[in-house]
């Protein structure tokens, strides 16, 4: 089988199990959304999320993944992804990307949302809006017979049309039994290129979009990925199953967005 991409095809029942895990990720991110405020440390948010996941009989799958030390990736402002929770305190006007993964009954859910603290600049809110919209447009491409390049192109062209940078170094992925499975799901590419979508494939789509130049650097901790020019960056992620009926979004932002509406420290995007 060497050289052949091992794309997993899931049954309807298996997709239901992945959905349960993905929905738990959304509930965990909502718990973060209820607690986020100026002055709270990213380590405290990580602790809250970890306890929430364990209370729901699941495991935080990021913790220990290739040695990652925490349950959440929390990436503030110029940090694109993989920020390690620390004593850094959230401030008014920050944007805070929170990425979470759970393992529930052997199935992985993986989703991310970028929160905007009150006092945030209007231009930052627009970056978040466009990044989230690009994810939703990409999801519409997840139809049997279309190709990954169609989805990649859609995300890239929409974000670039809006004047933003599309990070190339990291991408989406298959998701299921493991956090990262085949295939890779880039946020840039050509229409009509790449693997054809088949019924039963489950992928995580996760645009990482920058206000300035798309170049990134990795900090010496081996994880933290930030923009080279220190411009701010947004990240949204959903898990999607390819079905006969079209794309089925397994994760959900509904609870997160309810939490945002009820938290006066946050701005709705
Ligand atoms: Mg993720
Ligand atoms: Mg992911």
How is the topology of this model organized?
Elements: H1 12-35, H2 42-55, E1 59-60, E2 72-76, E3 79-81, E4 95-104, E5 107-117, H3 122-140, H4 148-161, E6 165-166, E7 172-174, E8 181-185, E9 202-205, E10 208-210, E11 216-218, E12 225-227, E13 233-235, E14 238-243, E15 246-249, H5 254-261, E16 266-267
Antiparallel strand pairs: 1-4, 2-4, 3-12, 4-5, 5-16, 6-10, 7-8, 7-9, 9-14, 10-13, 11-12, 14-15
Bound molecules: magnesium ion (MG) (2 copies).
Describe the overall structure.
The chain is α+β, with helices and mostly antiparallel strands. It has a single domain, classed as Creatinase/methionine aminopeptidase superfamily (Creatine Amidinohydrolase), CATH 3.90.230.10. The protein is built from 5 helices and 16 strands. Strands 1, 2, 4, 5 and 16 form a 5-stranded antiparallel sheet that branches. It has a 5-stranded antiparallel sheet with strand order 8-7-9-14-15. β7 and β8 form a beta hairpin. The radius of gyration is 17 Å and the shape is globular. The relative contact order is 0.20. The protein binds magnesium ion (MG) (2 copies). Residues 110, 173, 204, 206, 237 line the site of one magnesium ion.
Reported by name, the CATH topology is: Creatine Amidinohydrolase
**Distance between termini?**
46 Å
Low-pLDDT parts are none
Q: Summarize the main sheet.
A: 5 strands, antiparallel
Summed up, the domain count is 1
User: In percent, how helical is the residue content?
Assistant: 25-40%
Number of strands: 16
Distinct bound molecules: magnesium ion
Q: What is the 3D shape?
A: globular
Our count of helices gives 5
Mean model confidence by pLDDT: 97
What is the assigned CATH homologous superfamily?
A: Creatinase/methionine aminopeptidase superfamily
Radius of gyration: 17 Å
What is the C-level CATH assignment?
A: Alpha Beta
Beta-strand content estimate:
25-35%
Series of secondary-structure elements, N-terminal to C-terminal: HHEEEEEHHEEEEEEEEEEHE
The helix-and-strand class reads: alpha+beta
Reported CATH architecture = Alpha-Beta Complex
